[in-house]
Amino acid sequence: MSLLKKKAGRDDRYYYASQWQLMYQKFRKHKLAMASAVLLMIFYLCALLGNFIAPQGTEQFSGEYVNCGPTPVHLFHEGKWEGPFVYGLKRERDPETYMNIFTEDTEAIYHIRFFAQGEKGGEYKILGLIPCNLHLFQAEGDGQVFLFGTDSMGRDLFSRVLLGAQISLFIPVVGMLMTVALGLLIGSLAGYFGGWVDMVIQRAIEVVRSFPNVPLWMALSAALPPTLKPAQVFMLMTVILSLISWPNLARTVRSQFFAIKQEDFIMAARISGAPASAIVIRHMIPSFLSYIIINMTLTIPQLIVGETTLSFLGLGLRSPATSWGVLLQETNQLETIMFYGWKLIPMLFVFLAVLAFNFLGDGLRDAADPYK
Fold first, then answer.
1. Which DSSP helix (H) or strand (E) runs through 88?
2. Given pLDDT bands bounded at 50, 70 and 90, which one contains residue 336?
3. Where are the alpha helices (DSSP H) in the chain?
């Protein structure tokens, strides 16, 4: 009898569940989407805490460790437990290629300290307000921890990947919000009023869609003055990416409005004297809000690739600003890829972030139809 009651209770919860509850229940069954959501949460958390996790700041570099490969972290020295430590680095020059070669000096041991005070140049501000110089880990003394190696200026690539994520992950979010706002506004006007308003908007959409994305990005970015500060370039890049990405959403919103504006609940709102803005915001947009959320998750990876492409081509953010695209600028030569393969590590993070957002979007798209 108790089993029957439990089963009936589960059935009742299913049939009386809201649309969002049904979406969440089905989304949880999508393993790839759940794993992607967890991965993205880790990425964004690391980006927010990037200044704390990174052992070096953006202004720190060392000419002694130019193009140094990743330094392994050890726990045992000659069979004896030492805790996490790194060996010293000896620099030699290859007689054939004249390139620097770094080898471990097993006579010099530098233990890794956690929650350590950083050196000069490692200062940062928590939330841009509170000065701080505390880092998650650093090697003691003259030791160096380069988990991802260094670049051509001797800067720690691991630190720059973390700090670059603050731009490469948050520019697309801001751009996505602007894209959704533009798409909803313009698509709503076209779908609700129709007529000549719809005709003008459709022609504008066709004009914007007719331009190839990359050349248009390059043309707009090339118009940015080189004297702008990184924060100003950040905002202008966000605007550029948003101005190009809104047509697809606007066209979809327009078609949704045409489909539902003759529904009974919309006609009832009109008869009751509700203004057009209230009908659109309170009735029409919420009726396909699940699609908008899905579109948001699928827009972000496009903007991540867009920012990375512009910065890689030197038309987006420039040093001293840091993003994943800026870090990949050093990989535009075959020699770099052959001898300094660790400089491709930022590409791995771009790949994982884009793939995770796509899987998340697929999971939300499947969950948007919970009765399927």
1. strand 80-93
2. confident
3. 2-15, 19-28, 31-48, 50-53, 157-168, 170-193, 195-210, 213-222, 230-260, 264-271, 276-279, 285-287, 289-312, 324-327, 334-339, 345-367
181 confidence band (pLDDT: 50, 70, 90)? confident
Give the count of beta carbons closer than 10 Å to the beta carbon of residue 333. Answer: 9
Q: HSE-up of 9 (CA within 13 Å, CB side)?
A: 6
pTM above 0.90, yes or no: no
- The backbone region for 19, taken as left when phi is positive above 0, alpha when psi lies in -120 to 50, beta otherwise, is alpha
Report the distance separating Cα 155 and Cα 169, nearest Å: 21
Q: Which residues, including other chains, have CB under 8 Å from residue 166's CB and lie 6 or more apart? A: 47, 48, 50
Bridge pairing between strands 74-77 and 124-126: unpaired
- As a residue count, the chain comes to 372
Give the separation between CA 55 and CA 119, rounded to whole angstroms: 9
In 3D space, the residue among 216, 199, 196 whose CA is nearest the CA of residue 208 turns out to be 216
d(CA 47, CA 105): 33
The runs of H, that is alpha helices, within 49-77 are 50-53
Looking at domain 169-367, which of 3.40.50.920, 1.10.3720.10, 3.30.420.10, 3.90.420.10 is its CATH number? 1.10.3720.10
Domain regions of the chain by residue span? 59-154, 169-367
Q: Which of 263, 298, 297, 301 is nearest to 279 (CA)?
A: 263
* Other beta carbons within 10 Å of 284: 22
Q: How many CB atoms lie within 10 A of CB 130?
A: 8
Q: Please tell me whether residue 328 adopts helix, strand or coil conformation.
A: helix
Q: Around Cβ 62, how many Cβ atoms within 10 Å?
A: 15
Q: Average pLDDT for residues 344-366, to the nearest whole number?
A: 89
Distance CA 113, CA 80 (A): 19
